[in-house]
Amino acid sequence: MKQVKIFAGSASGALAESIAAAYGTTLGDLTLQRFADNEMGPSFDESVRGCEVFLVQSTFPPAEHLMELMLMVDAAKRASAHKVVIVMPYMGYARQDRKDKPRVSIGAKVVANIIQSVGTDRLMTCDLHAGQIQGFFDIPVDHLDGATVLAPYIRSLNLENLIFASPDVGGVVRTRAFAKKFGAEIVVCDKMRVRANEIASMQVIGDVKGMNVVFVDDMIDTAGTICKAAELVMERGALSVRAVVTHPLLSGPAHDRIRASCLTELITTDTIPQRQENEKVRVISLAPLFAQAIRNVVTHESISSLFV
User: Fold this and answer.
1) Is 191 a catalytic residue?
2) Catalytic, out of 2, 83, 99, 191
């Protein structure tokens, strides 16, 4: 069996360390040199020749950390690594998965092309904004399900009259899959945007009166949608409202909005490190899931068995 080495990019140091510990090893030594103009130059401080190399890096913010990751892949390939696997818990640009208006790019496809162009052998990620993004790649993609670690926490709350909610029509499939684990029903919030991160109107499709509502989404950015949706379901007679979100971008006013909202709590993961404390945000680590997925890749065992 080839030797396994795990390295961390600068965006995911804490998560990578937890993944390595859960796998039963320590992080490899990597130096990221920066020139005066912020140009990056990563270098491995130990041999990776003939090794299976796993590079852990969420691309948030996307541009700089994606470039850093691509340079890491290139360095590993040039150092004669046997295989290079990207472990990208959060994939930036995944929201740009189609042409939703004229004359725009499909950012997710561009990122897929870049990842493959440097010789990446495999991609491991979690809760892509749209599952079909896997089809943009011509290399194996291990698409992990964040519900594997998030659902047990919801179950531990022992909530009665539980119902799950999608904050928009596009998230219905994800919400239905989550609700199926509990044998529960779902409702949908139909929203209309005037522009990105700004909602013009919203309405609830379904009955939430007397129910404990849990919103399900893949990411939370400025928290405008979730907070408005939470307020709306409480006005419709819900007993409580929570949100389960895999990727906590939490940009701009997000934390202030969550603190001021009627959300009981936001349950999320550590795909993106938190930049400030928030008593309403509960973080559950994905490190054990990624560590087991890495182990299964190395031993050629099933990945889907971890969450199906």
Assistant:
1) yes
2) 191
